[in-house]
Write a structure and sequence with these properties.
mainly beta; binds copper (II) ion; 11 strands; Immunoglobulin-like; 173 residues
Amino acid sequence: MPRFIRTAAIMAALLLLPAVTASFAHEIKKGDILLTELWSRATPAGAKVAAGFFTVENTGSEADRLVDIKTPVGKAEIHETATVNGVSTMRPLEGGLAIAPGQKVTLAPGGLHVMITELKEPLKEGEMLHLTLRFQKAGEIDATLHIRPPGAPGPGGGGAGSSSPHGHPGMKM
Ligand SMILES: [Cu+2]
């Protein structure tokens, strides 16, 4: 009897696993590149800009570089945020994002991010944002980013309005 119960419990756990993996341990791997924590934020109607975030890890022994990003919903590029004399500004990352062997780089609000301009449609909470990332070595990777509530501070949990919005001084919106 206890053995049957144990088996049933394991089977239940296995059945639950795919859903859990999809929503919480979402990761994408190609070659030596591992992408995790892929997320974005919902945008208000009429907004022309959006941002995407993820963590990229180079699990291999050779350097790689994220050189280009495309998305069906607009124009995408990699931006860096820098604070000069107390003023936060952002600019496209020249030459792409280099990732050394063993290095892990996190894109997050206030730092590196995928900038989407000329946004064709609002990003809706609960849906997915599709990006095609092109790496010098790993090649093209299709990435899906969970669209979190507006103002979400991170890839999971949290709620709206708990952090400052993703600011873009210097860009006309
Ligand atoms: Cu930006």
